[in-house]
Amino acid sequence: MSSEMSVLTKRFNGSCSGLLPNGNFEEAPPKSQLNGTRVMGRYAIPHWEISGYVEYIGSGQKQGDMLLPVPEGAYAVRLGNEASIQQRLALTQGAHYSITFSAARTCAQAEQLNVTVAPESDILPIQTVYSSSGWDSYSWAFKATGSVVSLIVHNPGVAEDAACGPLIDLFAIKTLPTPQSSKNNMLKNGDFEEGPYIFPNARWGVLVPPMDEDDYSPLSPWMILSSTKSVKYVDAPHHVVPHGARAVELVSGMETALVQNVTTVPGLPYRLQFSVGDAGNGCVGSMSVQAYAASRSVKVPYQSQGKGGYKRGALDFTATADQTRVVFVRMGYIMKPDGTLCGPVVDDVSLVCTRNRPARRLLL
Fold first, then answer.
1. Does 183 reside within a domain?
2. If phi over 0 gives left and psi between -120 and 50 gives alpha, with beta otherwise, what is residue 15?
3. 48, 113 in Cβ contact below 8 A?
4. Taking CA atoms, which of 30, 47, 120, 125 is between 20 and 30 Å from 276?
5. Which domain holds residue 138?
6. Same domain, 13 and 79
7. Is 260 buried (19+), middle (13-18) or exposed (0-12) by CB count in 10 A?
8. End-to-end CA distance of the chain
9. Which residues pair with 263 in a beta bridge?
10. 166 and 263: one domain?
């Protein structure tokens, strides 16, 4: 490994959580490595390696009449057509990790980012903006197949302007524990307490994008099934959540489903219970959530005043297979006055078998 490349490797021992080295890009390239805003040297941005047309963008900088949004601090990076940026990380082989980062569109409506830690790779759609700030935070998860991996973020777009592309900032990593069920809940991570890293000042939450069913979810073992839309992972410091410190906001209507598969016994009865509420974020209106399990479903209506609150829902069903899919879908859409999508929060989800157990005989 060259001396240049060795500085790109950061070792994380055991459980880790927090910003990647120069994850906010506040350590600037040398001025000799800049041609205007374009970064010329492959290793010019400390702790990162770049390829293609990459720009170093300062807060307040404009593109024509449009102000380019910098999510945090003074600087961010923009990836042009086919440009990429990567960082090498020394991790625990076999462990699961989530990456959180912020991104904003700057040109085309259908901008995308390809996030890769080999052999896993996914295209994250960023055309829908879910916050009024002009950017969103995204999460993505992977399993470390080696002790040293390369995190690569690539812009696969082909715009007329070669410099056009997403603006990215604030990269963080978090170790994801193995989800466990309990005697009181057959579902794993039913309270959503285990999930991607949320930046302390990120009042807009973190998006969990759609994924293939074989992918590892940042909300594992929950999956987000959709073509292009996401759900939002929210925290108690910035939102009202029904239980604990985390919850999921269904911001994309019927286009997105929150799903978990659970092992069941055909013919046995089960009860699914959950909370539906609002995040106290000004999302006002009629918000109903439809829950599905086996051949049954229930619709739980909730009238939101946008100030927080929740109600409990329940669904009794009989398992028809050795695996049952639990599904939550938001019925309809709601927008806040600033034009951003919002929706109900789902939290505190539990599943138990309700088969009557034989009473114990009392010995007299």
1. no
2. beta
3. no
4. 125
5. 3-175
6. yes
7. buried
8. 77
9. 323
10. no
Long-range contact pairs involving 116-120 (C-beta distance under 8 Å, separation at least 24): 116/150, 116/151, 116/152, 116/153, 116/154, 117/142, 117/144, 117/149, 117/150, 117/151, 117/152, 118/145, 118/149, 118/150, 119/145, 120/215, 120/216
Q: Are residues 213 and 168 in the same domain?
A: no
**Distance of CA 294 to CAs 186, 264, 326, Å?**
15, 10, 8
- Tallying the residues shown for the chain, one arrives at 364
In a shared domain, residues 249 and 318: yes
- CA–CA separation, 251 vs 330, rounded Å? 8
- The b/e string for 153-180 (b: 16+ C-beta within 10 A; e otherwise) is bbbebebeeebbbbbbbbbbbbbbeebe
Number of structural domains in the chain:
2
Q: What is the tens place of the pLDDT at every residue in 301-340?
A: 999 999 999 999 999 999 999 999 999 999 888 988 888 8
- 17 in a structural domain: yes
Domain stop point among 152, 175, 198: 175
Beta bridge partners of 274: 313
Residue 194 and residue 179 in contact, taking contact as beta carbons nearer than 8 Å: yes
Is residue 247 located within the same domain as residue 128? no
51-62: pLDDT as tens digits = 999 999 998 887
Q: How many CA atoms lie within 13 A of 353 on its CB side?
A: 15
* Chosen domain end from 175, 195, 216: 175
